[in-house]
Amino acid sequence: MINKIGKIVVDRDLCIGAASCIAIAPEVFQLDEENKAIVVNPKRADDETILLAAKSCPTKAIIVFDEEGNQLYP
């Protein structure tokens, strides 16, 4: 991958608590008390794993940016 991930954002309005991101990257994502995904430690997985987790989200609630702020996904 050319661009390194700089920021991960979860759109709480889109998140339905499917937890597919947690199945792929449990060190990075957790569900909060409202059953919404949150980023707990973005450095605990490599960029490829984080992108796989974002792509697994059925509602595309996980937005991934590179270090320059460019949106990588979706």
UniProtKB/TrEMBL annotation:
Domain named 4Fe-4S ferredoxin-type: residues: 6-34
Domain of life (superkingdom): Bacteria
PROSITE patterns the record matches: 4FE4S_FER_2
UniProt cross-references to InterPro entries, sorted A to Z: 3Fe4S_ferredoxin (IPR001080), 4Fe4S_Fe-S-bd (IPR017896), Fe-S_cluster_ET (IPR051269)
Any one GO molecular-function label of the UniProt entry: electron transfer activity
Keywords: Electron transport, Iron, Iron-sulfur, Metal-binding, Transport
PANTHER family tied to this protein: FERREDOXIN
Free-text function comment from the UniProt entry: Ferredoxins are iron-sulfur proteins that transfer electrons in a wide variety of metabolic reactions.
Name the UniProt record assigns to this protein: Ferredoxin
